[in-house]
């Protein structure tokens, strides 16, 4: 796995520079980045999603959940090289697993198709990964993050469930149920995502801690869904998330044997000890 971090300057033209993708005026990376977007009947929202995606990413993988509108056609018009794959199964967990398997990049970013995520934030996720993190976890409640799309009940539920995960598994998360994350491809071999629904993000967050992967929280702002209605149901999906938490067994002896830094949660503004 290569995680090369180099300055990108206009007057720097060594032969090796061609190996790097300019990300910003101060950053260039070697690893290719794949963006996975699970979508079902999101044709109206895709223009807003694709508009913010950076042009330096390696590939976009759209996972179509048997859409009955022109989601696929719109995606191909907006991003001609988009890789479209048909979802296996029915839930978000199935969609993400399908997309992950289709990726060819070393870094994988997962983004929702409803227009609530800002693709310009991808640079922060990728910067965290090439700087040493295994898993860059978006947080709406870290300093600098925010949300326009959560009711009081959902915020309360997320906070309670997040607290349970932190206590049970030794994590230090500020957000639990958020779908904007990025990670090195090798992480998939260690977390074994075997759930089908919206609870997949919670399962990922638990298993990266159990696997001793280095996690960095990225402040992220969640915007309102632009068109259509969400399939999320606070009470139903809250119980499914709770079921995942209770079903996961934390091996406390194994956690204690790990190096002190392994379950550490960092923030982009510094390390949390």
From TrEMBL:
Residues 34-163 form the Glycosyltransferase 2-like domain. InterPro entries: Glyco_trans_2-like, Glycosyltransferase_2, Nucleotide-diphossugar_trans. Belongs to the glycosyltransferase 2 family. This is Glycosyltransferase family 2 protein. It comes from Streptomyces hirsutus.
